[in-house]
Amino acid sequence: MGPSSWILYASIAALSLVVADFCLKLAAGRITSSLGVLLYGTCTFLTGLFWVLWDYSQGNAMRADLAGILSAVGVGIAFSAVTVSLYATFTAGAPVSVASPFIRLSGVVVVSLVGLVVLKEMLSIRYIIGMVLTVVGLYLIVVR
User: Fold this and answer.
1) Are residues 87 and 105 in the same domain?
2) Is the pLDDT reported for residue 5 higher than 90?
3) d(CA 86, CA 34)
4) Residues 57 and 88 in one domain
5) Do 78 and 109 reside in the same domain of the chain?
6) Within 13 Å of residue 67, how many CA atoms lie on the same side as its CB?
7) Within 13 Å, how many C-alpha atoms sit on residue 16's CB side?
8) b/e per residue 86-111 (b: at least 16 CB within 10 A)
9) E strand or H helix at 93, and its extent?
10) Same domain? 5 vs 70
11) CA-to-CA distance for 132 and 114, rounded, in angstroms?
């Protein structure tokens, strides 16, 4: 499956992360972190609820196995931890222009390694060069 099948969705996700980080930076210090996480969770819950109801109304069967359920719960826990950590980061005064790239690019490097080691995804010289450039870019952003 080539990039043309998923690049639009990945671009929307990237743009959504931009909006989320920017809004989080604006909210930090103006709302308690716990209330911010509650509002985030409420939005996420309502989005999921409406999506499930839409699928159901369209006659789409709901299916899940234990591994899928546990993985989905892991996503929820992880994104909740991300949100709590972002509120703490920005409330502590971190600049969005440094903290967001640090968080996102560090995550990119680690999840890439997990993909290579655990999921046995393909490694190429271009991939290695890309990862090296990512780490160098991360260094250049953080060390001003």
Assistant:
1) no
2) no
3) 12
4) yes
5) no
6) 0
7) 6
8) bbebbbeebebeebbbebebeebeee
9) none
10) yes
11) 16
Q: How many residues does the chain have?
A: 144
Q: Which SS3 state, helix, strand or coil, does residue 119 take?
A: coil
**40 shares a domain with 52:** yes
Q: Quick: pLDDT tens for 56-111.
A: 999 998 999 999 999 999 999 999 999 999 999 999 999 999 999 999 999 999 99
pLDDT for 1 equals 59
Q: What is the DSSP letter of 31?
A: B
Distance CA 128, CA 71 (A): 28
Rounded to the nearest integer, the mean pLDDT of the chain is 92
In DSSP terms, 31 is beta-bridged to 28
Q: What percent of the chain has pLDDT over 90?
A: 90
Rounded Cα distance between 131 and 92, Å, is 29
Residue type, 108: V
Domain containing residue 89: 1-94
Same domain for 68 and 22?
yes
Residues 4 and 44 in one domain: yes
- Tokens representing 70? 């546990």
Q: Are 138 and 102 in contact (CB under 8 A)?
A: yes
Q: Is 95 helix (H, G, I), strand (E, B) or coil?
A: coil
